[in-house]
Here is the input.
Amino acid sequence: MLKYDVVIVGAGGAGMMSALYASKDPNLSVAVLSKIFPTRSHTGAAQGGINAAMGYRDATDSIEKHFRDTVKGSDFLADQDAVEFFTTHMPELISELDYMGVPFSRDENGRVAQRPFGGASSPRTCYSADKTGHVILHALYEQCLKNKVNFHNDWYLLSLSVDKGKFQGLVAMDIRTGEIHAIQAKSVVIATGGFGRVYWSRTTNAINMTGDGTAACFDVGIPIKDPEFVQFHPTGLASTGVLLSEACRGEGGYLINKDGERFMARYAPEKMELGPRDLVSRSIETEIKEGRGFGDGMGSYVLMDLRHLGKEKIMERLPQVRELAMDFEGVDLITDPVPIRPSCHYMMGGIHVSDYKTCATPIEGIHAAGECCAVSIHGANRLGGNSVADVVLFGKYAGLGARDTAKKRSFTDAKKLQQDAENWVKKFKKMREKKTGINMFEIRDKMAETMWYNVGIFRTEKEMQKACDTIEVLLEQFKEAYIGDSSEKYNMAFINYVEIGNLLKLAKAVAMGAINRKESRGSHSRGDYPTRDDEKFLKHTLIHNEGKKYRLEYSPVTITKYQPEERKY
Here is the structure.
């Protein structure tokens, strides 16, 4: 049996930041499990930048303004103590990343360059061209190697093991060999990213964003907080959902309908294209619904026009965006506008974190950081540039929290952990030997279609009830799923099977949270309840997994400085 003091699951920005800070104590053994090679993690897809009130481009910017913008952007559902902690520590963290060797773009004075982003009152988004996440990921990986962190690449988390309310360890598969391992640990950081693949083909998320850590925590009794708040990024490529960075709008891109109008003048006359993501996404979908878009059905879109920026600026600031548009839409941004449509981008909800300073959860020994969890600083809607900031800042504090937890705890009796591992060995064998059943990919595609049409950008009770009913049927069908691969090594069909099971559990939580929140707030927009209802719903959703039945309850939002007010841009 493998033994480590601290295990981190996931090697994106949050996971590697956690590993880096936990490994600063030379007396602790630290391991990272990642189902792909670390530098291919989804943080690498973050293009536009990372928010911090450095005040380099706008001397009037401040931590207080970043705090206020984040709370307003969250539609007042963020916990303000956590937001203040986050915005206060970000400038120092940018300096740390700079010192580690992250090659930020520079302004004319040689300082870290900053650009405007949606929902921000000052240009505070630090960036490295349009490859910000990519360069941060590589710098963190180098630092982790320097600190001798143990990496288990191509390892997949199957479950967490908890005995008498305390974390014991985890069960994981070495995908290359098919061996299933019990890993004892004193503490764990779950940093497995979001679960946008519940919408499967209409998402900017990588193919492996399947909520593995969120589902594993849910299974051992940690509630999911605010799962109904799903961010739809306004500018996914029309045919694939692949992300075109908010930097396109930050640098001055226009959104155009089929009549040639810059239609954001109708919805956010002051901010125009730099309105917050939920508002811009709804505006695009409204244009399409009212017949001012191009194409029809799932193929409808509007245009994003960057031609007026000129070739030099596009090549300097947005080279990767241009490549993506050429590769996936056959359009060169220098000469033509590109077809775009909103795409599921980010989950504001996730694992319930009960202490933002250590990223601890209600179960002793389990910490979480990044998109897989809800701290909660994003509330009902996340501002662009706050995600990469979230993963590195709370990744750091999760690593420090897990380090301190590991120092306090000792290795416990591992009987239950061994039993959990043996159960997975049996399950793997059974699925490899199964000869017939329901096609698991048909189940996945039905889930995605149901979620997009019924729990998408615009929501009503009738549609969401339909989604709840369909997902219940799919969960039953999943019991009869068939993987069709008998191999032991590199059995990706089995991995896909576990992933789809995770997505179904989480899709049910998203639909349940949404149908019970009878208001519109941030990304959660209901046609039957079009206004925000602070009297009844200024509170966090908490969904508990109690087997086939899920239990829903609410918890208060922490309000310190800013009382809720109407959110206008």
